[in-house]
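Re: that backbone. Tokens:
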């Protein structure tokens, strides 16, 4: 069995075993997500499922990476990712229990990102323009990388509104990055994303509608952060444009949904951190879709975006950017038709 397949299977089995244990822990410690006007579930449900995702992913990484032959810089980059991933999970776990103020939670996320960027020197040093020329970020590299890590963490967190949605979209994004890594022959990235995908798929067995457990902020922040961090490490091993465009497109749905939420709340004169019911999944429910139908539709959209990301690696930068622009315009047009940019009924 290849290393990446082993990583996927180990994480999958570990998540299947760990998640029921986390459910018991959540019930005993009061980590329950109670219904309210914005949420769609009708009874309290355990909400620290991210602990199971984290444990399964880390176990798989530790076991498989023990066999990997990594250079010093890459080895410490992976170690840094695991340490900072642990920190971001703990920030989310505390929030699952204590409901931290938004600003405090954001500072915790920035701190976890800073550990990876400043403590282990994992950052985006350059990107390439459509003509193949290098653009060095220089002093902007650190804040840009931290913004990337924190931003992707929150996109997964914000889309976590229906049973199985965040876990499924994250799984598809991880598999997309894994396929591109295999195509580019970057095995370390394939192994890391395989472990992440396996953990998310194993958790999804208990999280798909009707969900028996939610991942909570501990899971959503961890998944988003790991996807972002893996892509930064990937930028060291292959073309930075490929490493960064692929996750942007693979996570296009939650990224744009987050962007729409910021625009919607700004236009409506409300704080951008205030939750609302204007996200895509809320709009689909409002149109009469069931939870399963809405989630499956969003899976299909995410899978199509993922396939597009894989296809982009075979074309020039100019064509890739042109395709990206068409995709974004199409999604923005659809968002306007659904009313996602309006605070009305949000």
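Recovered sequence:
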């Amino acid at each position: 069995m290849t290393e990446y397949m082993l990583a996927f299977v180990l994480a999958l089995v570990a998540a299947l075993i760990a998640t029921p244990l986390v459910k018991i822990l959540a019930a005993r410690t009061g980590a329950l997500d109670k219904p309210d006007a914005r949420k769609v579930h009708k009874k309290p449900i355990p909400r620290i499922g991210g602990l199971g995702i984290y444990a399964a992913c880390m176990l798989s990484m530790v076991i498989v990476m023990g066999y990997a032959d990594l250079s010093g810089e890459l080895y410490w980059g992976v170690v840094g990712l695991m340490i900072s991933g642990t920190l971001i999970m703990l920030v989310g776990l505390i929030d699952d229990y204590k409901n931290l103020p938004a600003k405090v939670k954001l500072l915790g996320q920035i701190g976890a990102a800073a550990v990876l960027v400043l403590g282990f020197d994992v950052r985006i040093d350059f990107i390439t323009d459509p003509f193949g020329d290098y653009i060095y970020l220089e002093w902007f590299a650190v804040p840009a990388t931290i913004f990337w890590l924190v931003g992707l963490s929150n996109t997964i967190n914000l889309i976590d509104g229906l049973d199985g949605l965040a876990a499924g979209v994250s799984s598809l994004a991880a598999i997309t990055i894994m396929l591109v890594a295999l195509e580019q022959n970057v095995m370390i990235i394939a192994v890391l994303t395989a472990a992440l995908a396996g953990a998310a798929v194993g958790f999804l067995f208990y999280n798909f509608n009707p969900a028996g457990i939610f991942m909570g902020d501990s899971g959503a922040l961890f998944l988003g952060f790991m996807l972002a961090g893996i892509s930064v490490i990937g930028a060291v091993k292959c073309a930075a444009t490929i490493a960064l465009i692929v996750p942007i497109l693979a996570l296009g749905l939650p990224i744009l949904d987050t962007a729409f939420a910021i625009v919607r709340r700004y236009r409506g004169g409300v704080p951008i951190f205030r939750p609302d019911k204007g996200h895509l999944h809320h709009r689909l429910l409002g149109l009469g879709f069931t939870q399963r139908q809405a989630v499956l539709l969003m899976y299909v959209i995410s899978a199509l975006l993922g396939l597009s990301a894989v296809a982009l690696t075979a074309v020039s930068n100019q064509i890739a950017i042109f395709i990206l622009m068409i995709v974004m315009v199409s999604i923005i047009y659809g968002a306007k038709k659904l009313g996602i940019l309006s605070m009305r009924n949000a």
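Strands lie at 32-33, 45-46, 126-128, 134-136. The longest helix spans residues 3-29.
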